[in-house]
Amino acid sequence: MIRSTERSLDLLGWMDSLADETRLRLLHLMEQHELGVVDLCDVLQMPQSTVSRHLKVLGDQGWCRCRRQGTANLYRMSLDELEPAPRRLWILAREQTESWSTLHQDQLRLQRRLRQRREASRDFFDNSAEQWDKLRSELYGQRFDLDAQLALLPPTWVVADLGCGAGAITASLARHVGRVIGVDQSAAMLKSAKLRTAELNNVELRRGNLESLPIDDASCDGAVMVLVLTYLADPAAAVKEIARILKPGGRAAVIDLLPHDRDDFRRQMDQHWSGLDPKELSRLMTEAGLSQIVSRDLPPEPETKGPALFLVTATR
Asked: According to the CATH classification, is domain 130-315 in 3.40.50.150?
């Protein structure tokens, strides 16, 4: 009898937490992207006190989870992490509300905010293209990218260098594999990469969004992404793109920053994230259809000034 009463109270709590338009709007947004309070205030056009109050209700009822990112809290809702009963309840609520005109307005504002993030990141690289190699070496060292290259050496492979920047890794890979496709969203970076790879006849450079790659499905044997995900508004979308372009059996290697508390560094580098949790990246890879995932921290090189790095490899 006690157990039945507890279940009834849980059900009432879940139903009560969904009986509010603002909380339903929040869940629609958080199911799509991990977002901060500032993001949610902008999209919902509500004050922070109101949004925070509703987030607390949703968090207390287990609808969303929160993690710390520098000085900010980030919120997300994952359908797979919900218990069966609230999962069914949310699916029903989502179906009944997806035609709301208010949600369409929210989507337009969300896409605008994500687009602004991408544009800010592109502007940073456009302004840093000429000094990028020197800046990156000072912050992270000279040879960390070899860890990614060593995972991708078969001489017949087609390899995608995603976020190729000024082309340092592209040029190095091109001397060991059959063909390299370098992709970057910054025209200035690609101009530098073109100069660096001018003498290499197995390099193709393409401008494009890393969350929607200009590369055909299952066309690459390998993909490398070095110091890129922390700049992206939606790392999950980029990981899905990696999985999409890889052939069955193809391999991916990703290097990025470990989580850190240097918010001044993040702002200086115009990065969206203060590092990434390798376990979270491994989870995103698994959801994208990748397997055989291996993660390891990389020892900092002497004289480097930036946060420590990690390497994750995976197979399609």
From this structure: yes
